[in-house]
Amino acid sequence: MKGRVRYGCVAAVAVLVAVAFSQLSARVDAQPRGKNVYDAHCVECHGESGRGDGSSAAYLTPHPRDFTTAKYKIRSTESGSVPTDGDLTQSVRQGLYGTAMPAWDRILSDAEIADVVAYIKGLSPQFATAPQPVTVGAGIPSSPESIARGQQVYDKLQCGKCHGSDGRGTGAVATTFEDEWKQPLRAADLTEPWTFHGGATARDVYLRFRTGMAGTPMPSFADAASDSEMWDLSNYVVSMARKPVWSMNADEIKTFYGAQTADAKANPVKRGAYLVETLGCVVCHSPVDDQKRMLPGLKLAGGMLMRIVPFGDYPTGNLTSDKATGLGNWSDEEIKRAITKGLLRDGTRLLPFPMDYASYSTMTADDLSAVVAYLRSLPPVTNKVPAPRRTFLPVYLWGKFKMLILGQDPPTVVFPGNAGLTGGR
Amino acid sequence: MRTFLKSAAIIVVVLATFGFLAFLYYIPPFLTTAPETFGKLMADAAPAVTDIADPGERAIAERGRYIVMTTGCNGCHSVVGSQGPDLSLYLGGGGIKIQTPHATFVSRNLTPDKETGLGRRTDDEVKRVLRSGTFSDGHVVEGTVMPWPLFSNWTEEDRHAVVVYLRHLKPIHHVTPEPVRGRAITIPGAIEQDYGGKDYGTSKAEHR
Q1: Which pTM was predicted?
Q2: Do the Cβ atoms of B160 and B60 come closer than 8 Å?
Q3: Minimal-distance CA residue of chain B relative to A405
Q4: Does residue B146 lie within any of the structural domains?
């Protein structure tokens, strides 16, 4: 009898040890497997070290998450807590709407997603503390009454200070924001639910109020509003949604584009910023480090080297408003001529690539002026870019002869790095 | 008399040679077409959307056309010769080969061709590449190869307009080579772009 108990105890202990060991080894295994997934798919934006500094990171708004600080916007946990595994899994699976983070559920298996979540958690010591999930009740079904109450909560909590009285930023007091990493940030346009990073159901919106968006100026309202107030507010925000262009009829589309054009004309700097961010100016006119990451403080300050074989070295120009080294002393017409005709102030002719002035010349006059207005608004950055250096004259002429007369041997553009930096920061 | 003719001939040849070299030196690089007209060629190359019957869709496609044209998609995705873009291959891919330290890419066929172009992809797949640089096989293309981080900054509605326009292009059967990839992680090194004047794709499917 005694022996049987003893054997029973030994067996129980053995089972416990085996279970514990398999749990542990599952965690230990998940991390290297997760690293493989991470290296294959996440590095371009989040960087090799997970600090949100991949080579594409600096061009994206919002910037990719820095995993080493464990600050996550999309959570179902108390303010200040790390997210749950479910939160992280959801963000990887469905992506973050309105950002460059795609939905990985069609590409990665559930096991791969679990592994990469485990790996990401391993990048920050904060995950040693257990997450504190919030309890989400059944909520309040949307109704005209709930929406009306929600509107009062919107006013009471002064949401309009950042999001505008209409949710679109109209009348907002604060218009420019920075997150904790000093990156520019926009207040969400509450009428465009397809851009809500964490989803647009009333429950998703409720969780953003309740838990706050860590690292951004959006705080948790858990202390400022009651639970029912937050649900009413969620119903109100959901009710603010406008139709996206893909659901509009012809008349609505006409009105929508008309309003956009009028807004662009009234706010040329805003329109110009959109054009410069999307046309491609930033990619070549900002110097990068050896990992192809934009150097901090030198956005649009020029200096990336374009080696155009066989013609010579053409460093990209400083587009900031600095008088000595940038566009500060250029007239509007001179800037426009460079953008649309590839003709610089000193008479230098640019190749039609990589600076694609032929395409830019198809811009409307208003858009061209908006680009100039935005470039003028850039704070001056002193960065003296070396002058273009032509290759040895006979080589240059032979290259042209081959290209123009014989019609062969198109040029090769090489991006070896920067042209030599003299300023910035 | 003969000596005079001889020296005159020498002078003419020398002058002509110098004149020709000066001509080579001063004309704008690359193009025998003036840069001013090159822009118009680009604009003309982008097919109009007037044939779309539905006025709403036409307006969206028109917006997409403007974005595709001004952004210069055909700088890489069309074969561009010394006289401007090859209209018969507009956005048919094969216009550029890009060599990074660990991979080789040839620009892809963006026309709706079902075998060789975007006809193979859903709208969501095309938008995902334009928003995230992420292809359906999970590969993320470097932003330095295809500047998708900038197109990621398009509003979702502008991105939609671009896709609507691409769907209205004339389908072109034009095979472009698949990328050759090495290590996935970005490593330091120069990026080389071999441009225009040459078609890196092929109009026959046999090379696939």
Answers
A1: 0.88
A2: yes
A3: B32
A4: yes
